[in-house]
Amino acid sequence: MSSLSGMPVRPILRFPDSRLRQTSAEVKAIDDDVRKLVADMTDAMYAANGAGLAAIQVGAPLRIFIVDGGVAGGDEQDPPKVFINPKIVEISDEAQTGDEGCLSFPGIFVAVKRGMRARVSAMDLEGKTFEVEGEALFARALQHETDHLNGRLLIDQVGPVKREIIKRKLRRDAAEAAAAQDDESDDASSDASSAG
Ligand code: ZN
């Protein structure tokens, strides 16, 4: 897959890649490397039809995530909202339970209980601090992506039985994908639309 610029898209790490368990480090300065990373993350998220993506999912252990502009309360055409060194300020007592996906767990959706609203403080790409409150899907994305920065994953939200089922399915999918690639390079495009 390639981006609009024609450059190859950075691959998204998939469970059980151990790098996904790292705790990401604070961003010290917003420089060209960080701007390039965010551009790469944007390409990777859109190529995979995701709603959000954390930097660690493309192998960069930095406290950065992005959320699709439409999900983040803007227009669908808006660029993703960028969160640098985000902190959850508040999560509502009121909860929501709904199916949650993750680009690092392709094709897997599990019911996860989250706060209905979440307030996050972060820095944007200009280094300006902002605070935003998300509700429903946006709140879910804020909580899911913050988990990534702390090495916490979708699979940690389920019990041991479901965890084994997910592991087995992902192993089978990976084996099938490898076999298909051996066969020939059929242009298999992803059909799943997942949150980050
Ligand atoms: Zn995720």
What does this structure look like?
With 196 residues, the protein is α+β, with helices and mostly antiparallel strands. The strands form two sheets. It has a five-stranded antiparallel β-sheet, sandwiched between helices. Strands 4-5 form a two-stranded antiparallel ribbon. The chain is built from three helices and seven strands; from the N terminus they run αβββββββαα. It has one domain (18-183): Alpha-Beta Complex (Peptide Deformylase). The chain is globular, with a radius of gyration of 17 Å.
Please outline the helices and strands.
Blueprint: H1 32-47, E1 52-54, E2 64-67, E3 81-91, E4 95-100, E5 110-115, E6 117-123, E7 129-135, H2 137-149, H3 160-183
Antiparallel strand pairs: 1-2, 2-3, 3-6, 4-5, 6-7
The structure holds zinc ion.
Strand order of the largest sheet: 1-2-3-6-7
Question: Average pLDDT across residues?
Answer: 92
* Number of DSSP-assigned strands: 7
Reading off the top of the CATH hierarchy, the class is best stated as Alpha Beta
What is the CATH architecture assignment?
Answer: Alpha-Beta Complex
Counted up, domains total 1
| Gap between N and C termini | 18 Å
Order of helices and strands: HEEEEEEEHH
List bound small molecules.
Answer: zinc ion
Assign the CATH topology: Peptide Deformylase
Q: How does the major sheet shape up?
A: 5 strands, antiparallel
State the helix count.
3
Helix content: 25-40%
